[in-house]
Design a protein that fits this description.
With 376 residues, this protein is an alpha/beta fold. Helices cover 50% and strands 14% of the residues. It folds into two domains: 274 residues, Rossmann fold; 92 residues, no CATH class. It has a nine-stranded mixed sheet with strand order 1-2-3-4-5-6-7-8-9, sandwiched between helices. Helix 7 packs antiparallel against helix 14, helix 13 packs antiparallel against helix 17 and helix 14 crosses helix 17. It is globular and about 60 Å long.
């Protein structure tokens, strides 16, 4: 049951010129994109870059001097130890980082972050961060259910073209969760010159797209370069239209916790694969797909806006803030529920009833298939 830490232990002494980039490296780089490099790595409009060893050492020093940094700036509990392992490795410690951007705008409802990484083998990797702990980030994800495009996707296209103009050689694009969605979208809608330089697109357990994206000329042009991966009980990676095949990766976690890349099992140069997703994953995917399909765009938007307004009533901006002020926040949320107008209440009730009906229809299929599997 080897994981990313084991991989760094096995391959960390090998430079990318000695052992070429493989899918596990892109899992590592996608996880690396969650590190808070604000004020450390130069932005897209700045010149030059910084070695990862130097950038990582600054972050580790911040953690040492202020214990709250670990809780407020790092998204995953494994990140600090992961950072230490990467900094001490030849393979990743000597990478050059540039073009870091981290944009959060509640008014525009955008959460966008990306980084450009030179691995020393003549190629450039553009990595898009997934959804962080900000509520606006989650709101933007939900907006995908009724919008053809979201602001982060538009920013991803601009960012990829900007990084392409500042670099030369092959381009590889990658991301986890929403970051994978942004990687595919940016590669689909960037200019033709940039698109021709892209050799690989790594998409790790990311939500899908609006059907117009899947059928677009740009998407069709890069479809064969997309390499999608999901864990065996994936929920997020089967959400919305995917448009391409995927490989199923074995995870040490259960349910939604398999979304964490730290739970994915790896070998020395690849991941551990399974034949298919679990029945529970298929059940959740089919239930949510039917539920979303049963609600028109207008009602989806109103439902999501109402949900966001309720969460906003807590006055917390991130999951960490909500957790630290749980008692006060819940009081504000409960009070906001009592002020919901009658039309919105009807939308909530209709959506909830539709979800129950969809689950009821699919649970029978789930139980029948489960019994069949047990018999065989």
């Amino acid at each position: 049951m080897a994981n990313l830490f084991d991989y760094i232990s096995w391959r960390g002494d090998l430079y990318f010129t000695q052992s070429p980039l493989n899918p596990v490296d892109y899992v590592v780089l996608s996880q690396l994109s969650y590190f808070p490099f604000d004020g450390i790595v130069p932005g897209p409009e700045e010149t030059g870059g910084v070695q990862f060893k130097a950038a990582g050492s600054i972050l580790l020093e911040r953690i040492k001097n202020d214990a709250s940094v670990q809780k407020t700036l790092f998204m995953f509990k494994e990140d600090p130890d992961f950072l230490k392992a990467l900094v001490s490795s030849n393979r990743f410690g000597n990478c050059c980082l540039m073009g870091y951007v981290n944009q959060i705008d509640t008014e525009k409802e955008i959460q966008f972050s990306a980084i450009c990484i030179h691995t020393g083998d003549g190629s450039c990797s553009v990595i898009f961060r997934g959804t962080d702990t900000s509520f606006v980030g989650w709101k933007e994800d939900l907006n995908m259910t009724f919008k053809e495009t979201i602001p982060a996707q538009q920013e991803a296209v601009k960012y990829l073209e900007k990084m392409a103009s500042l670099t030369s050689g092959p381009l590889r694009v990658s991301g986890h969760s929403k970051g994978g969605n942004l990687a595919v979208y940016a590669a689909s809608f960037c200019d033709r010159k940039t698109q021709m330089r892209i050799t690989d697109i790594f998409n790790f357990d990311a939500p899908g797209f609006h059907e117009k994206t899947i059928s677009s000329e740009g998407y069709c042009a890069i479809k064969d370069k997309i390499r999608s991966y999901i864990p065996q009980s994936s929920v997020i990676g089967l959400f919305l239209e995917q448009g391409s095949n995927y490989s199923v990766v074995k995870s040490t976690q259960l349910g939604i916790f398999q979304h964490s890349l730290f739970s994915w099992e790896v070998t020395h140069n690849d991941m551990v694969y399974l034949d298919d997703v679990t029945l529970s994953s298929r059940f959740v995917d089919k239930t949510l797909s039917e539920w979303i399909g049963s609600i028109d765009n207008d009602h989806r938007e109103k439902f999501i806006e109402a949900m966001y307004a309720i969460i906003n009533a807590s006055e917390a901006k991130t999951l960490q803030e909500l957790e630290s002020t749980w008692f006060m926040s819940m009081g504000k949320i409960i009070r906001s529920l009592t002020s919901i107008d009658e039309p919105t209440k009807k939308i909530f009730m209709k959506a909830f009833i539709q979800l129950i009906r969809s689950a009821r229809r699919n649970i029978e299929t789930f139980l029948i298939n489960k019994n069949d599997e047990q018999e065989t």
